[in-house]
Amino acid sequence: MIKQSTDDGIPSGERLLADRVHRMVDGAIGWRALVLHMSRLQSDNRSAYRIRMAANVFEVLVKEITGDVFRLASGDIVFLFRGAEPAAVNAAVLKVRSLFADDPFASGLEDARGEGFATWYDLEVEYLKFTVYVEQTCARELQRQKPAAAARLPMEPQVLADLCAAVERADLTSLMRRQAICTLAEGAPPRPILHETYVSIDELRDRIMPGRDIASDRWLFKYLTQTLDRRVLAHLRRDTSGAAAYALSINLNVATVLSPEFLAFDANLRATARGSVVIEVEKLEVFADLGAYVFARDFLHARGYRVCLDGVTALTLSHLDRERLGLDLLKVFWSAELFDPRRVERLQEFRAALERAGTAHVILARCDTAEAVAFGQSMGLRLFQGRYVDRLLREAEGAPEPVRAAGGGR
After folding, report:
1. Which domains does the chain have, with CATH numbers?
2. Among 43, 162, 289, 383, which residue has the fewest nearby CB atoms (within 10 Å)?
């Protein structure tokens, strides 16, 4: 049966796809995934009727092989299958293209981002990369359905150029934030071991370009974060007293690690200080270009830095091999929805994944409530980050409540 979206507030196609991928406990052996980017077709070709016609082409294959078809809220179609002849699936793709032959994108041309009509995944070797796609798709659709206080215009290349120029000129000192990562044992006060340093994206937007949704386009936003990386590194290079006073955690793009700005930052640090600096990289950065990540990781380790994978969820953690990826730390995001105590199997899988990764190497982030910390402690975790941890730290130090609470990193 085709899994499609509903109007219940949460896209069911995305939810069912995420659940199906999560249940691939056999390591996805023999499975493949095909994503048809129907959302990039011209608007008059994206009617519900025409999208259903395209999905039905793959529904015919499901009657003959092991597979599922998921129709997402965006219009994209995901086909998970095992045992099908590649020629049969290719024939189905060509048939769908013929249904939209009047559309330049479906006719075989790439879109403006250099991406084609269909994306293939061999889940035996690209499972984590596909999982990242699924998680981003779910998050994007859920975010899209949240009511906005005021509609913001999407980003465009020229607007991005103006924004980056403004960022290069602006004094970002007041937008720099530090948030502690603490060890937190039951009954003991928090003890900071790292301070993540970052720029508050929301405050940057509100100050420089309040009418724009600066994260609306993933590739344009990535370019913006590279500009911010350079400014953060320049700030830290000047702030030698801050770099010496705190063990630092910095979220950087992989490309930034290999940039002249990072080499200048590195040259400014004492060799003995590098061991107290953690470089965080986003999971998409790792799985989008594994070769570039491995090169950057080896460079960082050779210089004495530690490397942390940021943005890990319960879904991806179950299929990560921390040691094989050469990671010193994993930053897992807390989510009450993912850790539902009624879903005993998922809790058991999560506990087993933590044990494989090593609880001493896992940071539970976005801990904004006592519930999040209590859950992490029940799982054997001792490293925490989030607004609730900030509050405990202030109480332990007798510090006043800040005017603006620090959020998580970007």
Report:
1. 12-145 (3.30.70), 153-397 (3.20.20.450)
2. 43
